[in-house]
Amino acid sequence: MKVVFSLKIRHKIFLLIILPLFCILSYRFPLKGGEKFIKVGVPFDSGLSFLGTKGEYTSLSIDIIKHIAGSRNQRIIIIKDSLKNCIAKLRQKEIDIITDIPYQPVREADLLFSQESLYVSWAMVLSRPGIEIKDISDINGKKVIINADCVHLNYLKKMINDLKINCRLISTGNLFSIIELIHKGKGDIGIVNSFSFPVLPVNYNVKINPLRFDPVKVGFAVLKDHNKMGLLENVNDFLISLKEEKGSLYYRSMEYHFGKIVNDVVPLWMKYSFVACLSLIFILFALGYKMNKRLISYKNELRSEIDLRKRSESENLKAINIIQEKEVLVKEIHHRVKNNFMTIQSLLNLQFFRLRDSGFRELINELRNRIMSMSLIHEKTYFSDNASGSDLVSLRRYVNNLVEKINYNYSIDRDKIEVSIHIPDKFAESNFIIILGLIINELVSNVFKYAFPGDTRGRLDVLIENIYGDRYVLTVRDNGIGLPDEIDIHNLDTLGLEIVAALVAQINGTIEVRRHNGTDFKVEFSYDFK
Predict the structure, then answer these.
(1) Which residues share a beta bridge with 124?
(2) C-alpha count within 13 angstroms, C-beta hemisphere, residue 74
(3) What gap in Å lies between CA 488 and CA 492, rounded to an integer?
(4) pLDDT tens, the chain, 530 aa long
(5) What pTM was computed for the model?
């Protein structure tokens, strides 16, 4: 009995020692086949990661990926290298994901980028005291120092060429060499990434200027054929949820790594202006969507009530009164929607005349045109002489007014561009007209902006023709300088043409572009016009 008891005790002691040790070793050295770890490439030349107090690399992106790995019951292995080497290792599948990688369209050939970015990096300007840089033209005649691998370098070169600025570009290796050269008077100004440069080092005779340009999204990237267990999708989902929650890991880590000084990302006036405009546009779309559903519901109720009231002549008067009340309500709702459109347009007009930057002015003007193309729908549907009571808009009248207002917004001389419009006398529902109007707005705006530079004169044709049955083709044609050959209509990187392609897909149409004595866009679609 003593021997058996002694063996049981030894067996229990053995299990108490071996099992915890086995669990620790299994966690510390997992089997590769179980996908228990994520190999993370961290670019050391981004300037966004550093050694923490525990001897481990830390940054906002590393905190996020650790959080995601923990939710997936995985660990991370950090591989520290230059961005160029990290991309090479990702392509060789030596790592699974890269952090702090700036988005560039050329990298989309084999890389997938996170749709939700960690932050936006702007190019910011340093200079010696006494040199004020308020506009990009102020760098004329200056010696400009920039990191040879800086993501903003190509954009800077393009602006210099486009604006014919005479300056000398000096390439250097890293951020602190830029500061050193400016401090020693060997350069006038330096261009650096805003998020890799939160504060100026002490005892350096260098100042930060208010000018910001070339916003670039910074986030995560994986290889297209090596998205391990949907890792990139997890990154997107977690970033969205973390940004929506105040006090989440994202904001705590942001404050820890960058402190309270994050106002160098966007000038404060610009941020407030754009947040206000985007918020109002979002509210407008939400109201429009809800109002549209309400209107359809109201109209269905009106039709059913009319049918019911017709069955009894004694109740006709009551039915008419109810219909009239609801019609007044519908008109009041749409009157308010129209006022909302006018408010948005007025705010954009105010912003347009206060902006000095031509790029932002062009952006605001494009927003004005898009909102104007939708606001016309309410005028033509609910404030026209359409007596049918249905949700129909005159196609000919709408397109004529739309092109005329775009022409007015761009202040085009009527003698410079001869505009010819041929539209059939048909009616269509407002939902379809909104999409068709936005397509016409983008294509006609491009003609007014780019087709006839300087004093060039020419012609613009806008036509909608019936091919057969319910098949139609929209043509927007000009005899201007023509669309550049490098623009592929099926592989777009310009917002306006991307919007056109997306809208054409919504109406199950096809788009074709021809380049001969100008540019000829043809959008073929099917619709049963009334």
Answers:
(1) 192, 212
(2) 22
(3) 6
(4) 444 445 456 555 655 566 555 555 444 444 343 457 888 888 876 667 666 666 677 788 888 888 888 887 888 888 888 888 888 898 898 898 998 888 888 888 888 888 888 878 888 888 888 888 888 888 888 888 887 777 778 888 888 888 888 888 888 867 778 888 888 888 888 888 776 665 556 567 888 888 888 888 888 999 888 887 788 888 888 888 888 887 788 888 877 776 643 333 344 555 566 777 777 787 887 777 778 878 888 778 887 877 777 776 666 666 666 766 666 666 666 566 666 666 665 666 655 665 666 666 666 766 666 676 666 666 665 555 444 445 688 889 989 988 888 888 777 777 788 899 999 999 988 888 888 988 998 899 888 888 888 888 899 999 999 999 899 999 999 998 887 776 666 665 566 678 888 889 888 899 998 888 889 999 999 999 88
(5) 0.40
**Would you say 120 and 215 are in contact if contact means Cβ atoms under 8 Å apart?**
yes
Distance from C-alpha of 390 to C-alpha of 49, rounded to nearest angstrom: 61
- What CA–CA distance (Å, rounded) separates 231 from 242? 16
How far is it between the farthest Cα atoms of the chain? 115
How many other C-beta atoms lie within 10 A of the C-beta of residue 424?
12
The rounded distance, in Å, linking the Cα atoms of 172 and 135 is 23
Name the one residue in this structure whose structure tokens are 């053995």. Answer: 14
Burial 66-75 (b: 16+ CB within 10 A, else e): bebbeeeebe
Enclosing H/E stretch for 61 = helix 60-71
Helix residue ranges, H only, 226-357: 231-244, 249-258, 268-310, 316-354
Which among 95, 82, 77 has a CA at the least distance from the CA of 44?
Answer: 82
Structure tokens at 92: 């060789």
Angstrom CA distances, 237 to 67, 114, 244, stand at 12, 10, 11
